[in-house]
Amino acid sequence: MKKGYLFITILTIFLGIAIGIQIKNSYNNELELSFSDRQLVDELNKTKQENKKLLLKKEYFNSQIEILEKNRLKDEVTKELKEDVDELKMALGYKDVQGPGIIIRIDIQEDINLGFLMEEKNFLITLINQINVYGGEVISINEQRITPYSEVTLAGNHININSVPIAQPYEIKVIGNKERLNKYINDDNLLIDNMKNYNLNINIKARDKIIIIKAEREKKLKYTKTELNVEF
Q1: What three-state secondary structure class fits 186?
Q2: Cα separation of 54 and 62, whole Å?
Q3: Is 96 in contact with 214 (CB distance < 8 Å)?
Q4: Which of 62, 152, 154, 231 could form a Cys-Cys staple with 119, CB 3.0–4.6 A?
Q5: What's the CATH number where 181 sits?
Q6: 118 and 190 both lie in a single domain
Q7: How far is residue 232's CA from residue 196's CA, in Å, rounded to a whole number?
Q8: Which residues on adjacent β-strands are paired with residue 172?
Q9: Nearest Cα to 97, choosing from 152, 139, 142?
């Protein structure tokens, strides 16, 4: 693209110089011209015609430069919009993401349904909320992405996340500030201590790279519309 701009610019300068040459016919039509003089006049007339063509070409190239400039600006705006859309999709859980963070694994040695206990004591909901407060950016539970529209509910004898049943053990992946998350989990965390009081096995590992997949289905808004004519 830069080479194209340079070529058009150089050619435009050349055309401007060529057109700037003013040719004046100072010959007296009443004088009888020699053969060589007539040839010179013919050449001068041809040069004038060529200059007119060069002028048209110059105008054409100038218009092409304007188009290229507009397209370049358009491409930059399109790129910025795409980046904004990608960032929004990540925030809503509609793109696969990766980054540093921690993995929390929750299980129980006893032969009981862990779902009832997690629901009754609100352990999962409370843990998700606290993770969001202490540096968590993206969370998944058993590969179910937690989004602004996710529901975590007890359905029968198991927990549903995003309307998908999940079974114990529960593996919670968190992408975010690894040091801050580790400090939150390990420094006298009342929630973790309370969960351990119910004989839950909680294993926590820090990772430099964690992959969290996107939500399987995008939430479609049926009734929500953008409000127009809003004053800021």
Answers
A1: helix
A2: 12
A3: yes
A4: 154
A5: 3.30.70.1880
A6: yes
A7: 50
A8: 104, 141
A9: 139
